[in-house]
């Protein structure tokens, strides 16, 4: 039996959730990485999901989001979870725009996932040129990984 948890980002207080010990798949829709409340909620949910095997995120990106992230970046510790995600094998991020906060989030996931096998990132329509994709792909490939098996795949918006 598959269970679903539907959350409205504006109303949720993840800190009030009990440990999400049985969650194996988390799918998050309309996540604004630059929204401090949403990002902290996701990090808290990840902290409470020790059996997580797959993380699937569909983001929202706009011109203002990249600038809005600057306040979050002042405290980089707020973008990090404490324990390893020991069961996480697959990460999918759709509508990725390559903002600094998104890059730090992926970097954190790579460093905290010792059995990670695959990271699939689909670029956002916000990205207008191939140069931007190449730039963030190069940066992603340089991030240290806890798993030697972790492969990063970038999909273009035209064939997502």
Major β-sheet, in short? 5 strands, parallel
Topology order in helix (H) and strand (E) letters? EHEHHEHEHE
Helix content: 25-40%
Record field, number of beta strands? 5
Oligomer: single chain
| Major sheet: arrangement of strands | 1-2-3-4-5
User: How much of the residues is beta strand, in percent?
Assistant: 15-25%
Low-confidence stretches: none
Label the overall shape: globular
Measured distance between first and last alpha carbons = 28 Å
Total of DSSP H or I helical runs spanning 4+ residues: 5
Structural category? alpha/beta
Number of domains: 1
The Rg value, from CA coordinates, equals 15 Å
Look at the structure and give the mean pLDDT: 78
Task: Explain what the structure shows.
Helix 4 links the parallel strand 3 and strand 4. The longest helix is centred in the C-terminal third of the chain and has 13 residues. The chain has one domain. A five-stranded parallel sheet has the order 1-2-3-4-5, with helices on one face. It is globular, with a radius of gyration of 15 Å. The protein has five helices and five strands; from the N terminus they run βαβααβαβαβ. The chain has 160 residues and is of the alpha/beta class. It is 29% helix and 19% strand.
List the helices and strands and how they pair.
Layout: E1 25-31, H1 36-47, E2 54-59, H2 63-68, H3 70-73, E3 90-96, H4 100-111, E4 118-123, H5 130-142, E5 151-155
Parallel strand pairs: 1-2, 2-3, 3-4, 4-5
